[in-house]
Design brief:
Organism: Microbacterium panaciterrae
Distance between the termini: 29 Å
Largest sheet: 20 strands, antiparallel
Shape: globular
Structural class: alpha+beta
Protein name: Tat pathway signal sequence domain protein
Pfam families: PcRGLX_1st, PcRGLX_2nd, PcRGLX_3rd
Radius of gyration: 29 Å
Number of strands: 39
Mean pLDDT: 94
């Protein structure tokens, strides 16, 4: 929805300011909001500096309790992005943000609500962190202990203890398996990041330790989010794989908790989520289906999960023989692929498992509860998509049950992180470049190492004061997998002027509609390919493939550098920009999954390449090109600002010093002409002004606007000034960087152009920078680059003395010419540049299809494993850059499109 400016007004310093309309991602308000909601909203520059003046208001009612905090500021110090949170609601409404008049700091806000407040409990001395809400009391673990959370109290009952991480490391992998060594979490630090009044966030960091050897590995960060009015605790769990791929095979990784049970076994219940809203709901000792009937009232109560009536109200033929009815102690659901799960149960260890059910795609929820005093559920978002996973209940018939969600199931094959081939004799740069020519794989011995990559999962703890009704569980599971999310409207984001050049969807002319249809085709195609091609799995979910093999009717999953895309040519940016202008929930969730993946799995978080990402490969970490173009915050900022997600904030912060990687990992070491003599010099590091500086600029911008870090600000503004001062600006291609000073040598006089420079976020970041700050010479340097890239050889020669070499991807670069047209004051020149830009966009270009000739065809067995749609002319490079060029051209020079028939 594009909408119109809302009529509601708020007051800022005596002036009327439109209220900031919000919308629910999935359209109408959800049926319920059991876990509250956290989101981000942009503000126009200069609108507000005092966040205490923000309020949340129901569109048809009064103000609502909400919590606000700054996410980013404009260069003038005003708020650019704000995080916001509301607590749980039984009937959420439509909302808007309003700005109140300035007033005295003393006293409570008028919308403060003492009910439902969340706060940190005061404790004397160095006791554990305790967070208290109107529903829960959560006591966290302490440094040196195994428990992340020592106890969760719901009402008068402790419903869970010792919430901790567990893992299994297998030593060796072959047909006979290997010894499995268990490990458990050890807490290093507990930090309260937010303490209410609506939302509390506690960050627990630590590592896994093996009791037998005291070995420590798998560092983790786990955030717990507790909100007012909610029985749920949201968890964001991230770990770094820091093993030795030749000997460490992770055979299990999970979160487990102890659940005290007090009632008779027939009053205990297990719930497991199946597929499509289905639930497995059984008592630990069932009293239905017996030879003798305890009574309809008794059976119905157990099915509902209620405390059963006193046994003297049962048929005595049943109540007198309860001990002869088996109690089912253990339950297990295994999701070992994206397409199937199995469910088993047994009476106790040492006895056979009994098949209890099966299905396709479990929605990742398990709970064990006592009908009288409650219990605990755990859910994993994107459970089946991130297979192999497992859900376990153990000792349900004892006094202390355990409930475990395995993020990597122990009954699956252990993780094998070894590189997938032996090097094929590629021992020097010459043979490696030859390999690049045939399989497009950039190989180098020792570089296909996963040491330092990460993975993030989102989980939820469900605290129950009694066994929940299946109808309640169904609502909770649906919200677990598709959390309700408030968002700014398209109009509000556009008015705020964030995220560069884009505009809402406009089908007002035949040619505009034709271009919009082509963008929609590509979005729909990729949304469908994820499922058809089963782009799922622990390390894979969220990424897409790079290029297609029409002969085999498969994406080139096994061909060197053509397999997993790893952000190549910016599909992340295409998806996020598409979301901004459409508001589509399905596009948001694909972009969200990609952000979770590419920011974690495709980037190194510790070790020799910390801060760098890996180029596309058969394995996400397999390529020897370790570069900033993949780890760039340009791909992550969207999700962070739209959701206020703290984990992605961590990813942005950890890149702050990524410029130091140029000391040890030269990104152009294999192809530079001075390779024989070039040695990294901290006073003169060779930094490309395209993919390298674009990523650094995104890093420094994100850090400056999020934290106010002056070092990042100075490096950003300083290098912008240096690019403006270079004799040929961006056309220099590569400048010499003084690491300590954070500045370029402005005397370098050379010309080098690469077709990749502007297709990894440089266009988007420069557009933002030009709207943010005025730096002498920088705008002119960028306009010169944009003007000359698609200029005629004669125009290039007149400007720089010779035609530019390295001009490719003309269709993608049409947006550079469009930028010139949009920023030219002379109407005739603007029209001429716009005509050139649209001509380049409509031309074939390199790899891109003339006149949007996109077609999908259904291929059926026996020619393929499963029926699939294929569009042989589409690759991810094409789709991403075509989509971005189309969106940005429409925003910049849409008025210059012909108004006749499409294709004219």
């Amino acid at each position: 929805m594009t909408g119109t400016a809302p009529a509601a007004r708020s007051i800022v310093a005596g002036e009327a300011v439109p209220a900031l309309e919000l919308r629910w991602l999935d359209g109408a308000p959800p049926v319920a909001l059991p876990a509250g909601c956290t989101w981000g909203t942009p503000l126009q520059r200069g609108t507000l500096t005092d966040i205490a003046r923000l309020r949340l208001r129901a569109v048809d009612g009064g103000t609502e309790p909400a919590q606000f905090w700054p996410l980013a500021t404009w260069p003038d110090g005003s708020l650019k992005w704000v995080g916001a949170a509301i607590g749980a609601r039984s009937q959420p409404a439509e909302y808007e943000l309003v700005i109140t008049e300035p007033r005295a700091e003393s006293g409570e806000r008028e919308d403060d609500d003492p009910r439902g407040r969340v706060h940190q409990e005061e404790n004397a001395g160095d006791g554990p962190v305790v967070i208290v809400s109107d529903r829960l009391r959560v006591t966290f673990g302490e440094a040196g202990g195994e428990a992340l959370v020592r106890g969760i109290r719901h009402g008068a009952s402790v419903i869970a203890r010792d919430v901790r991480l567990v893992s299994l490391r297998q030593e060796g992998i072959d047909e006979l398996g290997g010894v499995r060594v268990p490990a458990a979490s050890v807490v290093d630090e507990v930090v309260v990041e937010q303490a209410g009044p609506v939302r509390a966030v506690v960050k627990v960091t630590g590592h896994h330790r093996e009791p037998s050897s005291r070995r420590e590995w798998l560092p983790f960060t786990v955030r717990f989010v507790i909100v007012a009015g909610s029985d749920q605790i949201r968890i964001v769990h991230s770990f770094i794989w820091d093993g030795d791929a030749e000997r460490d095979f992770l055979a299990g990784l999970g979160l487990t908790a102890t659940v005290p049970l007090r009632s008779p076994v027939h009053d205990r219940h297990v719930r497991l989520a199946g597929a499509g809203g289905g639930l497995f709901s059984e008592a630990v000792r069932g009293i239905t289906g017996l030879r003798r009937d305890p009574g309809a009232e008794i059976r119905a109560a157990q099915i509902r999960g209620e405390v059963l009536p006193s046994s003297d109200r049962w048929d005595h033929r049943v109540s007198a023989r309860l001990e002869l009815i088996p109690a089912w102690n253990d339950f297990s659901l295994s999701q070992l692929s994206a397409d199937g799960f199995t469910l088993r149960k047994r009476t106790r260890a040492g006895h056979a498992w009994i098949d209890a059910g099966a299905g396709t795609r479990s929605e990742g929820y398990v709970a064990v509860t006592d009908a009288a005093t409650g219990g605990l559920g755990i859910g994993v978002r994107s459970f089946w998509q991130s297979f192999p996973g497992r859900l376990d209940v153990r000792d349900a018939a004892g006094s202390d049950a355990t409930v475990t969600t395995w993020l990597h199931a122990p009954d699956a094959a252990p993780m094998d992180m070894r590189f997938y081939h032996d090097g094929l004799g590629q021992d020097d740069f010459e043979t490696q470049l030859e390999g690049l020519e045939i399989t497009y794989e950039d190989y180098e011995p020792g570089f296909g190492d996963a040491h330092g990559i990460a993975r993030t999962h989102e989980l939820t703890l469900f605290a129950y004061g009694a066994t929940p009704a299946v109808e309640r569980v169904a609502v909770e599971v649906a919200a677990l997998q598709n959390p309700p999310l408030l968002q700014p409207t398209i109009a509000q984001v556009e008015a705020a002027g964030v995220f560069g050049d884009w505009s809402p969807v406009d089908r007002s002319t035949p040619l505009r509609a034709d271009i919009e249809d082509s963008i929609d085709f590509l979005l729909e195609f990729y949304l469908g390919q994820v499922d058809q091609r089963r782009w799922y799995g622990f390390w894979n979910y969220g990424d897409v493939m790079h290029a297609y093999d029409a002969d085999r009717h498969v994406w080139r999953y096994d061909v060197g550098g053509y397999a997993w895309d790893n952000s190549e040519l910016s599909p992340d940016l295409w998806l996020w920009t598409s979301y901004l202008r459409t508001g589509r929930a399905d596009v948001f969730r694909l972009a969200e999954a990609m952000t979770r993946h590419t920011g974690e799995v495709d980037v190194y978080h510790l070790g020799r390449w910390a801060g760098l990402g890996s180029r596309h490969n058969v394995q996400h970490w397999g390529c020897s090109a370790k570069q900033l173009r993949i780890s760039s915050p340009a791909y992550r900022r969207y999700f962070h600002y739209l959701t206020a997600d703290e984990r992605v904030g961590d990813l942005l912060t950890e890149l702050r010093d990524s410029d130091r990687r140029f000391l040890d990992t030269d990104p152009t070491r294999k192809v530079r002409t001075d390779a024989a003599t070039y040695r990294p010099d901290p006073d003169a590091l060779a930094v490309g002004l395209g993919t390298d500086w674009g990523a650094l600029a995104a890093t420094w911008l994100a850090d400056w606007e999020r934290t106010g870090n002056e070092r990042s600000r100075d490096r950003l503004l300083g290098t912008m000034a240096d690019i403006g001062a270079l004799p040929h600006g961006f056309l220099t291609g590569e400048a010499l960087y003084d690491l300590e000073a954070g500045r370029f040598d402005t005397s370098r006089d050379r010309i080098a152009v690469s077709h990749l420079s502007a297709v990894f976020g440089l266009v988007e970041i420069v557009s933002e920078l030009l709207s943010l700050v005025e730096v002498p010479g920088f705008r002119d340097a960028w306009l010169d680059y944009c003007r000359l890239y698609l200029a005629t050889p004669e125009e290039q020669t007149a400007a720089v003395g010779a035609p530019l070499e390295g001009i490719h991807l003309e269709q993608a670069h049409s947006r550079l010419t469009a930028f010139v047209a949009a920023h030219t004051d002379d109407p005739e020149q603007a029209a001429a540049q716009a005509e050139r830009a649209w001509a380049a966009f409509e031309g074939a270009g390199e790899w891109l299809v003339h006149r949007r000739d996109f077609r999908a065809e259904r291929i059926r067995p026996p020619f393929v494993l499963n029926a699939v749609d294929e569009a042989p002319t589409v690759s991810t490079n094409d789709a991403a850059q075509y989509g971005l060029a189309a969106i940005q051209n429409l925003a910049l020079i849409g008025q210059y499109l012909p108004h006749g028939e499409a294709g004219a």
